[in-house]
Structure formats: structure tokens, C-alpha cells
Prior knowledge:
With 361 residues, the protein is an alpha/beta fold. The chain has three domains: 65 residues; 46 residues; 192 residues, 2-Layer Sandwich (Nucleotidyltransferase, domain 5). It contains 13 helices and five strands. The radius of gyration is 32 Å and the shape is elongated.
Amino acid sequence: xxxxxxxxxxxxxxxxxxxxxxxxxxxxxxxxxxxxxxxxxxxxxxxxxxxxxxxxxxxxxxxxxxxxxxxxxxxxxxxxxxxxxxxxxxxxxxxxxxxxxxxxxxxxxxxxxxxxxxxxxxxxxxxxxxxxxxxxxxxxxxxxxxxxxxxxxxxxxxxxxxxxxxxxxxxxxxxxxxxxxxxxxxxxxxxxxxxxxxxxxxxxxxxxxxxxxxxxxxxxxxxxxxxxxxxxxxxxxxxxxxxxxxxxxxxxxxxxxxxxxxxxxxxxxxxxxxxxxxxxxxxxxxxxxxxxxxxxxxxxxxxxxxxxxxxxxxxxxxxxxxxxxxxxxxxxxxxxxxxxxxxxxxxxxxxxxxxxxxxxx
Length: 361
């Protein structure tokens, strides 16, 4: 007589949890397989039938049946196995982290490398990497930041974000700026085409053929862009571009233009032109806050897709390329959706200031 099988009965909650584990693509495959075995056992199948279905042994099926009966779902997880004792105690780990965070290498380097920490702390390279990853310390990386010094930062921030999140009725919100010094660079040798197994090749050196300034106005509502290239970016060119926007926008709509603090925006002739047109309203972003102007996203797109990897024999050729790109861009344009509130941005800046002052928890 064979040994009697342990009775396996599932309640509804256990059944749902096991079914979820069996279908999961994120859990380890072995754990999902054990859940399927237990579900098959609960359905009344014999061990040898289940073993054949999952291509395993009768003993394995019996093992997970018994483990589940004794410890339920927790029994399906692997038990902790005692491994080799740690060779690096907590004091040495603390020394490693403190060295990384609060000191600099004696050779004058600006930051620690894994090998330098290995020499300094006498901890192996692989262990240094593991502990730095465990504590989220990345001495090889840095992030850039710039805090605005504008005394009216909060007021301007709320004004601009308010236009994005709650635009006024019977008005058009446009983001206006210029990308100055767009260089017409000609590569010194023909580019190597993209192929199977290798990327496009361009020479590192180039010939300069002059620059142009790209003026652009981004329609926040639909993402369409009005753009033009001008040889310079003085108040005369800026005023000319404002006239182009004024002509393109229907006369019955007000225009709320988001601009930066460049001096041309406040030139007396520009102020006089705006004063004579009451439908125009300029909204200035805070200083050092170009990220607040959505047209910068368009500048990033056109730089990446049309300018950076191009080769241009003249400024005229560069301007023609920009015009061609903008024309096709507007045929399938989509708006850049702003989601951050002013309060969330201020909260992020508060956290950054605490990090700078060393008061962050």
C-alpha cells in the first residue's frame, strides 16, 4: 500500500492568489510552476499525472503538496540557506560609504572611482561595486542644476504654469524664443551610411559657414510651430517675428506670449509696439528657468532630428533644411502636455535646497 496523499483543500482567497502567481510573468518561473502544481493537486489530479504534465518527478509533486498543506502559500517559497559568513563587517562598510561621501582622493581627483576606493579601503573591487549599488551611491555621476535668483520667481512660476494648465478663453497661448547661433557646419569628409552591424559615421571636424538664429513660436494648444530664420537676434528681428505672429493669429483672439528675459523683449520699440496692441500679453519666465518655456522642447527635437547630424555647405542650405523640417513637423504635430503644478515644482525645489544645505533627511 502506498502512503496516503495529504489532503489539499483551498479556500477562495488562496485559489485566487495561486492563480495570480501561476499567470505572473514577473515572479520566478520556479515559483509560478509550484503554484500550478498546487492548483492541479487541489483539482484532484494524481501525483503521477501532474508529474507527467509538468515533466518532473512524483517526489517533487509530493514535496510541494506537503509543503503547501503544512505552511500554505508561504511554503512555496525557498527557505533561506546559510551561506558563507560575511568577511566585511558593518564598520568597514560604514567606512567605505563615509569615505565616498565625505572625502576626496589624495591624488587630486574630483571623485572616487571603484579602483581608488579598493586601494583606499582594502575592500575588493567587486565588493565596493556591490555596496555602492546597495546604498545608491554613484560617485562617477553628476547632475547639473541652476537655481533661479529672480526675486519674483514664485509669482512668475504660478503665472506661466497657470497658462499651461488653465489657459484663458478666447485667447491663444504661444511660447516664443529664439535658438541663436545655429551653425552651418560642413563635415570635412562624406558621411558613412548606416549599415548592418555598424552605425552612421561622421567626421569629428568640420568647416564653419556662418550662423543663423531660429525664431519659433509654439502653439500650446495643438503643438504647431511658426518658425523663421534670421541672420541676427536683435530687437529688430524680434519685433519682426512678433508681427509675423500677429498676422498669423486670428484678430478676434488675444495672444498670451511666454518669453524669457532677454533684453530685446524690453526694448522701448518693442514696448511701444505692444502698447499699441492691447490683445498682446507678455508673460516672463523667471531667470535661469528656460525649462519653463515649452518651445525649448521643440528646439531639442529639431536639433536632434535635423541639425546636429547634418552637413551644410551654407547658411542658406541650413535655413532651407529647417524650413523643410518645420513644414513636415506641422503636418503631424502634437502638443507637449504640461502636467506639473506650481506646488509640485516648488516642493521639488525645496527638496533640492535642503540637499544643498545638508538638512535633507
